[in-house]
Specification:
This protein is an all-alpha fold. Helices cover 83% and strands 0% of the residues.
Length: 123
Amino acid sequence: MAIPFQTGPVVCGTVLAKLELLGGRAFLRRLIDTFLEQASAHLARMRQARETGDLHTVGRSAHAMISSAGNLGATALSDCARDLERLADEGRTDAVDERLEELEALFTLVRARLESVRRELAT
């Protein structure tokens, strides 16, 4: 039986519930773990690339987060990553800095929600 996830502003509970129905609790836990690990790595690469002025790497790493965040129902994070990719491609350094900060803040909220869901799945 599926866990009744709450739909919140950072992660769509309906998407998570559908993923659980599709593959079960263990499947959803693995998806969450993989996403959190990879998204953290992408953010670290973006920060490092931004410090060295490598907007191409910022854009590539942002691109990698777009679908993975969307697939877990984190649409605001996905949309922000999409915008960051576009800004990096356009070479808009100041806007990239602002959007990267926003992406990091959104990821903090998404991570907290997904960690909570993961704990629920473990019970």
